[in-house]
Amino acid sequence: MELRFGREAIERNCEEFYGLYENFEGRDYDMCMAKLEHTRIVASNCDRIARGFGLSGYEIDLAWIIGLLHDFARFGQIVVTHTFNDSNEYNHAHVGAYLLFKYHMVEDIVPEYDKIPDEDKLAMAKAVYHHSDFHPPNNLTPRERFFCDLIRDADQLDIFRTIVVSGWKTIYGRSKEEILASDFSDEIVQAFYKHELADYSKRVTPADFHLAHIALCFGLRSEAALSRVVEQGYLAQMMDIEFVDPQVQKKYEGIKEQVRSRLPLS
After folding, report:
1. For tag attachment on the chain, is the N or C end more exposed, with fewer CB atoms within 10 Å?
2. The last residue of a domain, from among 125, 156, 187
3. How confident is the prediction for the chain on average, in pLDDT?
4. Domain annotation covers residue 2
5. Which one is predicted more confidently, 176 or 15?
6. Domain count, the chain
7. Are 142 and 31 within one domain?
8. How many whole angstroms separate alpha carbon 174 and alpha carbon 170?
9. CB-based contacts of 143, cutoff 8 Å, min separation 6
């Protein structure tokens, strides 16, 4: 008999943990609430994408659980660093994977965890650990690679919505005016012309942070994610901006053309 999961119990356990962060104030509170909504929607995206691949009910559940757990350590990161910026000292994906799978916190969230085959426990751990890597490692098994790619698509897809809905001040800690008054770094611009993800470690200017998020569209792999990003319209809204300096705006027009060559945005 195929293993199935009690989604209501898992959601309840997640809410109990994530609810600990509802008592903060100011930007920390706004960031936590943005990530709480992001977590729910990424789990839903995982479910949608998995169904598009025609997976079994067990595998769809597994994808959904990975979505719920992928940002497990984001909340602690907000409290400790007051930002969403990863560093060598605090990489939210790596910390989350350690807490969940090395220190067994996943067992308090997923009642059926002990029934999951070891192969899939490892796939879950690696999907959480690598979901925000610039490039996942090449030594993943096909099953590990599949779930890693799936959560990366589901996650990147909702980042566009999160930025539009939550606002630039909450996400970047800077005003829209400050970002639009800045320029781009050459390495961030080149990512668009190579149709690649932008390396977050190369971000320097305020505008770099916004452009690096736009470049996430080059990391989307599944047809379900690509069609969904067009359907939702959030990426188009993110791109509908104008920089103060005409020369910067001219460079930005070229960047937008590269995105439109990837996706049929209006």
Report:
1. N
2. 156
3. 93
4. no
5. 176
6. 2
7. yes
8. 8
9. 119, 120, 123
Provide the whole-model pTM. 0.90
Question: Three-state secondary structure along the chain?
Answer: CCCCCCHHHHHHHHHHHHHHHHHCCHHHHHHHHHHHHHHHHHHHHHHHHHHHCCCCHHHHHHHHHHHHHCCCCHHHHHHHHCCCCCCCCCCHHHHHHHHHHHCCCHHHHCCCHHHCCHHHHHHHHHHHHHCCCCCCCCCCCHHHHHHHHHHHHHHHHHHHHHHHHHCHHHHHCCCHHHHHCCCCCHHHHHHHHCCCCCCHHHCCCHHHHHHHHHHHHHHCCCHHHHHHHHHHCHHHHHHCCCCCCHHHHHHHHHHHHHHHHHCCCC
What pLDDT sits at residue 99? 95
Co-location of 72 and 99 in the same domain: yes
Residues 19 and 140 in one domain: yes
